[in-house]
Amino acid sequence: MEKVLIVDDDIMLQKFLEKRMKRHATKFETIHAFNGKEAIEILKKRYISLLVTDVVMPQLDGLALLTYIHNNYPQIQCIVMTGSRSQLVKKKLQNGNIFRLFHKPFHFDALTQAILQALDQDVPEGVLKGISVSSFLQMIEMEEKTCLFEVKSPGKKGVFYFQEGILFDAAYGKLKGDEAALEIIGMKNAEISFKRAPMGKLNQNIKKPLTALIMEVMRRKDEASG
């Protein structure tokens, strides 16, 4: 079942949302945190489909939480609730995986519909096996697709993000960008599964062309076996 993490330090609002969302219990489960720090601990332990967060919170605010999501869980889309009308806040929220922005007070049915819409976006189903990571990446590049997908092999896991056929970013453990891409491309017996791509354009952390990355992986393999 889909899991929606709601982060807000307003206890009354949290209780109200929990009660309101129960009518959709067959479609998603809500998990609650009262600040960004609590949310990060939950993210480390549980699979989360969607994040709904306030901006102004104690210990760790929503902007810091969104930055953490962007850097560590780019597949998770985010809905932001805020009472701030600050242009600076709006500017900081323009980039990244923000699906919708709600200014408080807002209509709760609109929030519910946004959650359902985010969860119902079409994602290719199934897991691809028996294809090399490099061949699959070249196919995505050739077809100029925008997508996010996870690559797994025994004991290893990484994520690739493409924007219109351009390899924009990769994440592998604590590695990002080119170095993460090199580790993932080198995986053997990999399984590939699509994830929900974030709305909007993410930062391009991959600096080298895909062909150069693949050639670098081949060079490293040759050196290791030589």
Can you tell me about this structure?
- With 226 residues, the chain is of the alpha/beta class.
- It folds into two domains: 118 residues, Response regulator (Rossmann fold), CATH 3.40.50; 99 residues, no CATH class.
- The protein is 38% helix and 27% strand.
- The chain is built from eight helices and eleven strands.
- β7 and β8 form a beta hairpin.
- α2 runs parallel beside α3 and α7 packs across α8.
- It is elongated.
List the helices and strands and how they pair.
Layout: E1 2-7, H1 11-21, E2 28-33, H2 36-45, E3 50-54, H3 62-72, E4 77-82, H4 87-92, E5 98-103, H5 108-119, E6 127-128, H6 133-142, E7 147-153, E8 156-163, E9 166-172, E10 175-176, H7 177-185, E11 191-195, H8 210-225
Parallel strand pairs: 1-2, 1-3, 3-4, 4-5
Antiparallel strand pairs: 6-11, 7-8, 7-11, 8-9, 9-10
Under CATH at level 1, the class of the largest domain stands as Alpha Beta
Please name the CATH architecture of the largest domain.
3-Layer(aba) Sandwich
Number of helices: 8
Q: Describe the main β-sheet briefly.
A: 6 strands, antiparallel
Structural class: alpha/beta
Strand and helix order: EHEHEHEHEHEHEEEEHEH
What's the overall average pLDDT, rounded?
86
E-strand count:
11
Strand content: 25-35%
Q: What is the CATH topology assignment of the largest domain?
A: Rossmann fold
**Count of distinct structural domains:** 2
- Gyration radius, to the nearest Å? 19 Å
Provide the CATH superfamily of the largest domain: Response regulator
**Biggest sheet, spatial arrangement of strands:** 6-11-7-8-9-10
Distance between the termini: 48 Å
Q: What general form does the structure show?
A: elongated
Q: Name the poorly predicted regions.
A: none
Helix content: 25-40%
